[in-house]
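Example record for the data management plan.
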Amino acid sequence: MPAAQFDNFSLPSNDFEPAYMELFRSGELYRRSREALKRLKPCRVCPRDCDVDRLADEKAVCQTGRRAYVSSYFPHFGEEDCLRGTLGSGTIFFSMCNLKCVFCQNYDISQRGEGQEVTAEQLAMMMIRLQERGCHNINFVTPEHVVPQILEGLPLAVQMGLRLPLVYNTGAYDSMDSLALMEGIVDIYMPDFKYWDPERSHRHLKARNYPDAARQVIREMHRQVGELKFDSSGLAKRGVLVRHLVMPDAVEDSERIMRFLAEEVSRHTYVNIMGQYHPAGRVSDKRFGEINRRPFQAEIRATFDAARAAGLYRFDSRQPLFGSLPPV
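Corresponding structural encoding:
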């Protein structure tokens, strides 16, 4: 990331400590972990409000009961430069998802449940092993439905020496209740605001109330941690990073989302406008022909134009991880 993008949003490296450390020292982190587990009975951890008893291992939309499922954990070099750095983002991929995106590029993980059930102790050890490998942060992917399980494992990890910033990497279909539990714990919120239109959300995400939920939680995330800030090496340390995946035939949604971010969150919001959508999951089904293509370059350009017109200016850009290749 060019230095100019974070000069005005920097944190002294030697003054940073993860947000959760203060709550750990006061005992509040452990209390939150106990309180979070109670929310599994009846479950209202996400906006689905399924009301099943997950403490008794009952399952509903997310097909996750008492314990979380993890498909993999590893240093991830495909994330934004400010997260991956040179040693990777310590990514933990949770299986299943409370959204049912027909186009999901991780369909086997998010909807077929590929992965293994883990205890709180095992989840804590994953965090520690990622820290030992030099990762710059712990990146929880698809955490919406397993906030209680994350909070159950976190105090154990801190006792074992965890000191990395936490990234909450979400599709933005979160409950305000869960975000209240995570306040003062998460360092970096990374929501992906997918659609503005309720009908598109219903058709492609199976959640008609998704836009309302996303707007509400992104405002709350910003209230908690503010604009994205970096250390002197360009690594993100605290704040909100909003992703937006440009979808086919949805430029109007993209424009509305950009205006919302500029006008109702902050014009200083750091945004990653992503053009890498490709048909996956169930998109080959002829019922979803309208999204059975990659976005046109004109649609991606229109999204950037709308963002700039709204007043946004902090856009993510990728740099080669290992420098430019030598000429041949």
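Summary line stored alongside the record: The chain is about 35% helix and 15% strand.
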